[in-house]
Amino acid sequence: xxxxxxxxxxxxxxxALASPLAVGAVFAALLVVAVLPVWLWPIPRGNDIVNHWxxxxxxxxxxxxxxxxxxxxxxxxxxxxxxxxxYLALSAWASPQAVTQFAWMxxxxxxxxxxxxxxxxxxxxxxxTILLVPLLSYNIATSTGLLNYSLGIGLGLLALAYALSxxxxxxxEILALNVLGGVLFFCHLIxxxxxxxxxxxILVSVWPLSLRALARRxxxxxxxxxxxxxxxxxxxxxxSTYSMGEQASIGFLQATTGSFAAPYGAVxxxxxxxxxxxxxxxxxxxxxxxxxxFALAAWAAPSAQGxxxxxxxxxxxxxxxxxxxxxxxxxxxxxxxxxxLVALALTAARVYAVAPVWERFQDQAAxxxxxxxxxxPGSRALVVEPSGCRDPRLPSLTALTPFAVIDRRAYVNxxxxxxxxxxxxxxxxxxxxxxxxxxDSRWLTPKGQAELPAWHTQAKWAAxxxxxxxxxxxxxxxxxxxxxxxxxxxxTRLGGGGGLDIYRID
Length: 506
Prior knowledge:
The protein is of the alpha/beta class.
């Protein structure tokens, strides 16, 4: 007797969207939409984008470049080389600005592709929930910046996908994971630490688990990261460190919603939880311990440790990527087409919604560059800001001050440059190890210095700011829409605009 399958066949569109090839095509289209802004506006938006771009200009200098005597290249076991290494590889064909734009696109696309690779390693039939990753990826790249860390997330997720796809671990796999860990060390140290923790949790999550098996798998995890562990042990310590405070810097909700208006952020998490219940989300067995352990580590992480900042923010960002990569919706077949359309609509709407923000950022950058024309080439400028200023545009204003390096070939204390952490350092060794941040304008007067916290004025890096006239030639007063708080005498205003004033120290 012949048996017949009486179940109705799946609609052609639903069947097509269940294939990895179709999901990959939709995913690629979403990433194209997500990176569209960088093709429309010349200056990528983000708190550290111009800073990295400015540092790239320190390489390939002509001998008579005014900035040649203000900074020095500082390579070695430096765990923050992602964008710099990319530029050095492409500098024969691309400018620092072009490489920065390309890196911004990679910061959006690479972590998303890493999440897709993990999902493909865990599930034969992809879940439509993976299509939400490009939207998340755009939010994180523009709200938190952190280019090298974002590149490190992408490389780490791809390395984890490789580990999850291997049925067994032999010498070849151990060597490959050591090479990948070494690359991650040089890209970004915290990105490597997050990857190493996740890799270790994945390797020990084998059931049923005995003490003997646990010890063997833990030893395997250490062997798989032996090379980067050696690099960490022998890396050069920075000359001094500074604290950013102990309050949590960013939460799960903030990292995900980015610069969405408050009403959207307030409903996002409850909506996400409701969708998770409706879709009956489940976590792949091979990743359950890793996701739980890593989420707990991110929740417990400090915001800063020495010169390492935003530790909790960075780890929570990683949790979102890994979480979406390892979950699958059981009630997914009939929702594949609707979720694909929703993902595309949300990603496009997100880019459309932030277009005015990108426009304003271009305008602000133009104002800053125009103001900086008053700064002579070869200057050593101290960037200050008033304490307590609540102008929402002030952070982006101070983030644009490294244009002084690009356009005016001048030194600014806001450039990421510190031996042991970045591949460049100030030529003035007294400034090596100080905060790469705008300083409180109270540093400029004895009265103001007396009002500063003692842990500021007594820090190892404080000396050149207590004696700022000796180490700097100009002051950049970034006050935005707030009133200037510069009260020091012996300053001559040279020009400015857009909430940025330039003074010569007489």
